[in-house]
Amino acid sequence: MARGFESKSVADQQEQASAAPKAPREPVEAHRRRLELSRVDVQRRLDIAQAKAHREILQRALSALDKEIASLS
Fold this sequence. Notes:
Blueprint: H1 2-19, H2 28-48, H3 52-72
């Protein structure tokens, strides 16, 4: 008895989720600005990082951000 009720509830939730309006995509310039700010932050952290492993992680993050910024150009 409760099982059928739960299934109905899940079906209702799925229907509501599909009917909900989708959020508009972030404009490209706003996305680029966010990436650029992230890049500045990662570069700042890289400048003060001392541990080799931490520096490597930050270098990879910097490379990934550069690639994503370049893909928007």
